[in-house]
């Protein structure tokens, strides 16, 4: 009889394998008290209305009050979000998240007068204000706000936009509930004869099975369920895209893409040059697929063959504690203090919620706030090498937060997503290089080369394809085209054909992949993975090949938080993304790896 591998309920998970949320709040009751405090506090921000232009001191007092309120709401939001992630089907946690959203929306509504009122201060007067030492702690943020002047609306219009905050999250909430709670995929018998529950977490593991029938069954069952809910998923994504377009138009941006890039001060040319550089290397990607097809000894290559091991090495189980030890060794070039903090956070301090449980949020992420540890959600799987790399990735985010919060005041403690993906993929680069340094056999080297190829393929090439999909569907919406299920499928199919090449068999259900990507509910986010890894490859080379100067430059980058624009931070660290050099070098590295793999396989 087949052994059953069932996902445990949350209450059956060992405490030491869960995160410790007590630094945020000691209990749900303490969280409720903080909610009441915030509800009493946020109306008081109205006391500054109409007075911001009186003096630098009044503006400073308002900034201090708003920062204090935001800091409290951050703690409330992170706690609710983490609780909800533990069990997305738990109605109590759904209620906590809804209450946080209500408070955040009402607070945003109450403070919505601040940007237009600051914008209304006469230019000469504001210039004098900014010379005052009182405003020095907020100077960069105020200058960023002034840069938004063409896109700030009247007080009443800003209030109306703030009031729709809860409604605007509906598409994302519909997708999350479908994806993490309501969609049930059944079970698959794996290559060992075990019956495995097919979930968002186990899907990737099953696609890595050496047995093709297992991979195909998992793929077919997974996408059959998505196809059965295709119109709902399409409607949710369409709602999110239309919300992006509405917000951009309301704020006088030429497009949703320009609106998304404006805050980071990233030229649209950076986005377009990324797509151009990656498309220029697609013939190498197609050659890699042919290598994979030959190595797997299949007549046709399908999407469910994309993650199967092409090197038949012995499967190794990497226990969580072993992964922590290996990651710590790999990150030694960053110094003893970095490694000590990392090891304690991943183990004794319980930053990490380690393993999958029923209805737990899928995937992995790093989350926290200025007054909490940088928590990590994992669905760690001992039999999957990628789990160790994912842990290193999320630890990169968390150590970025740790350094940023330690070095910066609250208002500059949060870094942009653009630079976040540098810190995370930098850690993966150091881990890969560490494993390369210990490899002895030809077969093991080929396996690690293929792992690095898959990292570039998944983080630069795949995310660039996603970025192109986002660009295309937003452009369709802006042109007045209805975003139906058929439109989404056709748009995605054109990209699949281009990126996978003429010899790759595209199963029609793969056209639904664009409907299952959670990142699309945060518009124009995914391209930052690609630019991030490109920058990380360059910085890792600098740190490993350099000395104390290069290490300090990188740690200085981690410590800079949100005190500068991201392209300036990266330039200080040693990478200039306004030129195509970093992406081109990353793609050259991809070509070198494919060449070597071809000789080894």
Q: How much helicity do the residues have?
A: 55-70%
Distance between the termini: 37 Å
- What is the structural class? mainly alpha
User: Class of the domain at 10-168, according to the CATH hierarchy?
Assistant: Mainly Alpha
Residue ranges: pLDDT <50 for 5 or more in a row?
none
Largest sheet: 3 strands, mixed
Q: Name the CATH superfamily classification of the domain at 10-168.
A: Oligopeptidase f, N-terminal domain
Basic shape: globular
Mind telling me the C-alpha Rg?
A: 24 Å
Mean pLDDT: 94
**Which fold name fills CATH's third level, the topology of the domain at 10-168?**
Butyryl-CoA Dehydrogenase, subunit A, domain 3
The total beta strand count reads 6
Percentage of residues in strands:
under 5%
- CATH architecture tag of the domain at 10-168: Up-down Bundle
If helices are DSSP runs of H or I spanning 4 or more residues, what is the number of helices?
25
Give me the side-by-side strand order of the main sheet.
1-3-2
């Amino acid at each position: 009889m087949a052994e059953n591998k069932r996902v445990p309920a949350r209450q059956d998970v060992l405490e030491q394998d869960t995160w410790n949320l007590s630094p945020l709040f000691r209990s749900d009751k303490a969280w409720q008290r903080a909610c009441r405090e915030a509800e009493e506090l946020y109306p008081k921000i109205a006391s500054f209305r109409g007075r911001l232009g009186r003096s630098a001191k009044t503006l400073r007092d308002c900034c201090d009050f708003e920062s204090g309120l935001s800091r409290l709401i951050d703690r409330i939001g992170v706690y609710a979000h983490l609780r909800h992630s533990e069990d997305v089907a738990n109605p109590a946690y759904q209620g906590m998240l809804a209450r946080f959203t209500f408070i955040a929306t009402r607070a945003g509504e109450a403070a919505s007068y601040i940007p237009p009122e600051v914008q209304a201060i006469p230019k000469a007067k504001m210039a004098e204000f900014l010379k005052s030492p009182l405003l020095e702690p907020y100077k960069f943020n105020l200058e960023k706000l002034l840069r938004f002047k063409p896109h700030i609306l009247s007080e009443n219009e800003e209030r109306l936009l703030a009031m729709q905050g809860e409604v605007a999250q509906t598409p994302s909430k519909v997708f999350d509930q479908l994806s993490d709670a309501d969609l049930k995929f059944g079970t698959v018998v794996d290559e060992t004869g075990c019956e495995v529950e097919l979930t968002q977490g186990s899907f990737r593991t099953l696609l890595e099975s050496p047995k093709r029938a297992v991979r195909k069954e998992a793929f077919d069952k997974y996408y059959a369920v998505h196809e059965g809910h295709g119109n709902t998923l399409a409607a949710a994504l369409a709602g999110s895209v239309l919300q992006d377009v509405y917000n951009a138009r309301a704020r006088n941006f030429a497009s949703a893409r320009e609106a998304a890039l404006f805050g980071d001060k990233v030229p649209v040319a950076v986005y377009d040059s990324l797509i151009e550089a990656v498309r220029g290397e697609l013939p190498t990607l197609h050659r890699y697929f042919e290598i994979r097809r030959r190595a797997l000894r299949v007549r046709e290559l399908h999407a469910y063959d994309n993650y199967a091991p092409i090197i038949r090495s012995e499967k190794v189980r990497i226990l969580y504690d072993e992964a922590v030890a290996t990651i710590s060794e790999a990150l030694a070039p960053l110094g003893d203090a970095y490694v000590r903090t990392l090891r304690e956070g991943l183990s004794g301090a319980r930053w990490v919620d380690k393993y999958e449980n029923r209805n737990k949020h899928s995937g992995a992420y790093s989350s926290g706030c200025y007054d909490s540890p940088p928590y990590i959600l994992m669905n760690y799987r001992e039999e999957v090498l990628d789990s160790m790399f994912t842990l290193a990735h999320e630890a990169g985010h968390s150590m970025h937060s740790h350094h940023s919060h330690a070095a910066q005041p609250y208002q500059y403690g949060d870094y942009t997503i653009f630079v976040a993906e540098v810190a995370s993929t930098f850690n993966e680069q150091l881990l890969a290089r560490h494993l390369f340094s210990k490899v002895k056999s030809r077969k093991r080297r080929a396996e690690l080369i293929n792992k690095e190829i898959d990292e570039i393929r998944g983080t630069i090439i795949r995310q660039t394809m996603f970025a192109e999909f986002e660009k295309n569907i937003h452009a369709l919406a802006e042109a007045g085209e209805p975003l139906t299920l058929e439109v989404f499928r056709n748009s995605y199919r054109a990209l699949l054909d281009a990126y996978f090449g003429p010899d790759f068999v595209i199963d029609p259900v793969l056209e639904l992949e664009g409907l299952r990507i959670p990142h699309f509910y945060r518009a124009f986010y995914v391209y930052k993975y690609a630019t991030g890894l490109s920058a990380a490859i360059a910085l890792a080379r600098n740190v490993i090949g350099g000395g104390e100067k290069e290490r300090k430059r990188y740690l200085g980058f981690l410590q800079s938080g949100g005190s500068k624009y991201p392209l300036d931070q990266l330039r200080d660290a040693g990478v200039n993304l306004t030129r195509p050099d970093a992406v081109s070098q990353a793609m050259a590295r991809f070509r070198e790896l494919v060449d070597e793999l071809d000789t080894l396989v």
